[in-house]
Design goal:
With 148 residues, the chain is an alpha+beta fold. The protein contains four helices and eight strands, in the order αββαβαβββββα. The protein has helices at 2-12, 39-55, 77-82, 142-145, and strands spanning 15-21, 26-32, 62-66, 87-96, 99-109, 113-118, 121-126, 130-135. A hairpin with a 2-residue loop joins β4 (87-96) and β5.
Length: 148
């Protein structure tokens, strides 16, 4: 599914940031591009996917296309590199040094992982161990406001 969406969106000039499927049949797709995302972009992608997905045998009840927003998910190594110097929140699949959550500035990123400058020092985190990561946007939740 990810490869299908990635190919379809790349062909339209967009990047697949993330997607999810709910039990109720909702297919949520987050897209981005260099100039940012407008409502017209979401409409164009929606129309395209409404034609493509049935042909590819992908069943869904509702389709939702959106921009990443200020607290955008970070799902690929390139996302971490692109947003070096910005504050992010990372949740790990299993504890590292006794903790699951890290909030701080992305200091650097390469193909294996990233370094985060948190209130208690710099931590090296491998991408394979990350469950979820997102930027701390201007309207970030309380969790993002407090360093772990």
């Amino acid at each position: 599914m990810e490869q299908l969406l990635d190919n379809a969106l790349t062909g339209l000039g967009y990047e697949l940031v993330d997607f999810s499927r709910s039990r109720s049949g909702m297919l949520r797709i987050i897209i981005d591009c260099e100039r940012g995302i407008a409502l017209a972009d979401c409409e164009q992608v929606s129309r395209h996917l409404e034609n493509l997905l049935p042909v590819e045998g992908v069943a869904y009840e509702r389709l939702e296309i959106s921009s990443p927003g200020p607290d955008r998910p970070l799902t690929k190594p390139g996302h971490f590199a692109r947003f070096c110097g910005q504050k992010a929140q990372v949740r790990l699949k299993s504890a590292c040094a006794g903790r699951y959550n890290y909030t701080g500035m992305i200091a650097e990123a390469d193909e294996q992982g990233l370094a985060m400058n948190c209130h208690d020092g710099v931590h090296r985190l491998e991408y394979s161990k990350i469950a979820k990561a997102r930027l701390c946007g201007s309207f970030a939740s309380q969790e993002c406001q407090n360093d772990d």
